[in-house]
Amino acid sequence: QVQLVESGGGLVQAGGSLRLSCAASGSIFSINAMAWYRQAPGKQRELVATITSGGRTNYADSVKGRFTISRDNAKNTVYLQMNSLKPEDTAVYYCNANIVSRGLRIDDYWGQGTQVTVSS
Question: In this predicted structure, what is the pLDDT of residue 103?
Fold first, then answer.
């Protein structure tokens, strides 16, 4: 059994910052790529940023230069530092991880989502 638990969402004014965290726990052997997605009302879920187990990162064009994804492999945790937030960043943010369980089964797991609201 593997769980992803997110924290750090909230309400912030435009131009402000927030830091999201997502901790994986349970029967984990190793974690491959980790990622953050978001879904705004009435829109499809979109990829925000990814990070490999080796630390290589990739970002959506809309967040490049403003958001930073990082991970702490010892804590099985991925972070998303969001700076210079805009109202269009308002969405529910989900973390995703590709995890190898102790039974050596590989699956994608999702967090429960955390709301980020940016006021203008």
Answer: 86
Say if residue 101 is exposed, middle or buried (CB neighbours under 10 Å; 0-12, 13-18, 19+).
middle
Nearest CA to 70 among 51, 96, 54? 51
* Residue pLDDT, tens place only, 53-87: 999 999 999 999 999 999 999 999 999 999 999 99
Closest CA to 94 of 25, 18, 13, 9: 9
Question: Which tens digits make up the pLDDT trace of 17-30?
Answer: 999 999 999 999 99
| Gap between the Cα atoms of 85 and 90, Å rounded | 9
Amino acid present at 6 = E
CB 57 within 8 A of CB 49: yes
